[in-house]
Amino acid sequence: xxxxxxxxxxxxxxxxxxxxxxxxxxxxDEIVGKRTVKGRFKELxxxxxxxxxxxxxxxxxxxxxxxxxxxxxxxxxKFDGNxxxxxxxxxxxxxxxxxxxxxxxxFPNLAFPExxxxxxxxxxxxxxxxxxxxxxIEKLCRDLSGRYDVSEFTDKKGLELKEHIREVDISFxxxxxxxxxxxxxxxxxxxxxxxxxxxxxxxxxxxxxTLSKIVLSEELKNNIFEKVEDVKxxxxxxxxxxxxxxxxxxxTSKEKKGELIGKNGKxxxxxxxxxxxxxxxxxx
Length: 284
Description:
Elements: H1 4-7, E1 12-20, H2 37-48, E2 53-58, E3 67-77, H3 83-93, E4 98-106, E5 116-123, H4 134-144, E6 146-149, H5 156-159, E7 165-173, E8 176-181, H6 188-198, E9 209-216, H7 218-222, E10 226-227, E11 238-241, E12 247-252, H8 254-261, H9 266-275, E13 277-282
Parallel strand pairs: 3-9, 12-13
Antiparallel strand pairs: 1-3, 1-4, 2-3, 5-8, 5-9, 6-7, 7-8, 10-11, 11-12
Helix pairs in contact: 4-6
């Protein structure tokens, strides 16, 4: 990620970790006149007064009625306030069908889905409706795990996609199917679940499927900014850094910015020798 993106930008990227009950929504993406996950998120954020540029990206796009114990919505915003307060305000306005569990700050203007390393799903079908034996289920999990063309496990919309090769790992534990992969075709998990559990290549109901985890790429993990408590620099009111501590964000007032940088950048150059990459931001 290019440091110049934040040097010359007044926006930050925000990852909103959310959980939701998919059965309480018509669908995931915004549809006029329907209660959707993205639509409800947008409504509540507008009510709070939080705004962003362009659209909302997601870690995983879930089918209708599919729930999530962890999904991520990503936006680029000029907001630079207290993330915890923002989360609390959102959750006070929302009901139990949609909650923010965590907010992380990163680079703005990312192609966010491309920075997701893996997505994990759990399918829990009623035991009385399972047709295949445990041995058959475990064998199919092994047979269907790997990297290959999964065209037989998607719908017409999926077949229209250019790339049909996917890598997936499937297991069965305690009556639940576990799917892990970097990307999934439309309805792939539900159709695979149908085949593994009932022997039929038909999409099972979305209400039994849960997106359980979004695993970020190492590049993105390293570029999440957190407050630094163990470094103090004169004239700096707040310090943030990435995970590897090779990029620091120094927040200072307009009055103290010149002194912090120094004549011909002398002071900031000295700090860079100690801390590495540094970006100076004015506190509004």
